[in-house]
Design brief:
Two copies of one chain form a homodimer.
Chain A (H helix, E strand, L loop, with lengths): L5 H17 L11 H8 L3 H13 L3 E4 L5 E4 L8 H9 L25 H17 L2 H4 L7 E3 L9
Antiparallel strand pairs in A: 1-2
Helix pairs in contact in A: 1-3, 1-4, 2-3
The structure holds a DNA duplex.
Chain lengths: 157, 157
DNA sequence: TGATCGGAGATCATTATAGTCTCCGATAGA
DNA sequence: TCTATCGGAGACTATAATGATCTCCGATCA
């Protein structure tokens, strides 16, 4: 459950790669093209191209056309959150269809729906979590993410 | 992104309904059948039946056959977590395919994969969150769930 | 003993996902 | 200025997941 798509997966790998090269010790500032990433991680080239185009459209990376072209991070790795990356590929976070319902829309269950509000709370918590972790945190770091919930029951599974 | 399935949605609604009737003021202890829930929330009867059967198999509710039959919670609402409910319907939590890879399996990217470890951390945090909220919390209560992360950058969107 | 329940399997339609193919425009460098 | 190399974009296909339906069975209570 709650699986992210392969495309989102590829986006995370690609951005991690770009960030590590761009801010690494070996060839800092080097522009990275799609083919390089596709071969390194065994990702279908044209599918990865779509992913990078989406990331570019969403302002996470900047593209450079022509020979020796490719991509660079549009801002520092510490300013790019997991939430931003995933949303660039899969659209806004939403546990249910009614998460982003506009006024005109409605679901059949809405009238007696008893779970919308609590689910929105859970959703918000997940969003905070995904937005608190950055690309920088994903690179070698071991971010210590903890959850505090007064309603914790300590139930084991 | 991270949407739960309609079936999981139905499971949450159904369990909330069963819990509220079973422990409510009006007719406590009453057995609730599939048809009642399906009509109340406009859920396709036979699809809801599948959902409830799955919940029964996973030990969250107990079934009673025959006329006047139906379902009851198998334990108190405070001992049934959101994680348990969702996993009963959608299977184990896993952001990526490699979340539950056994030793024999592997993904093409595994060799140079740079995101597996951090994603497992995120996944674990989400699991803690979902496992800290119970069916009881979903009923009228307003559980205050907060996230604390040292890597928080305060990035707005 | 029959109407009312849940249990279970097969089946189908629709949608989402993953991946491919083709053509276009930009550009750096010969 | 020509050309190979890059990204941008649309159409397209195949496969898998989801949502929903249908049918038949066994249990059980009145």
């Amino acid at each position: 459950m709650l699986k992210i798509s392969k495309k989102a997966d590829y986006a995370l790998m690609a951005l991690q790669h770009i960030a590590s090269v761009q801010f690494g010790d070996v060839t800092p500032g080097r522009v990275i093209n799609t083919k390089e990433i596709a071969e390194e991680y065994h990702i279908p080239l044209e599918l990865l191209a779509k992913v990078l185009q989406a990331l570019s459209k969403n302002g996470l990376i900047e593209s450079h056309n022509g020979p020796k072209g490719g991509y660079l991070l549009a801002r520092s790795a510490g300013q790019i959150t997991i939430a931003q990356i995933l949303e660039s590929i899969e659209g806004p976070l939403g546990l249910t269809d009614c998460s982003h319902e506009k006024d005109g829309e409605f679901c059949m269950q809405r009238e007696h729906c008893n779970i919308r509000t609590p689910l929105l709370k859970v959703q918000d918590s997940i969003y905070q979590l995904l937005n608190s972790m950055t690309l920088h945190d994903m690179m070698g770091g071991t971010p210590l993410i903890t959850i505090q919930s007064p309603s914790a029951q300590g139930v084991d599974r």
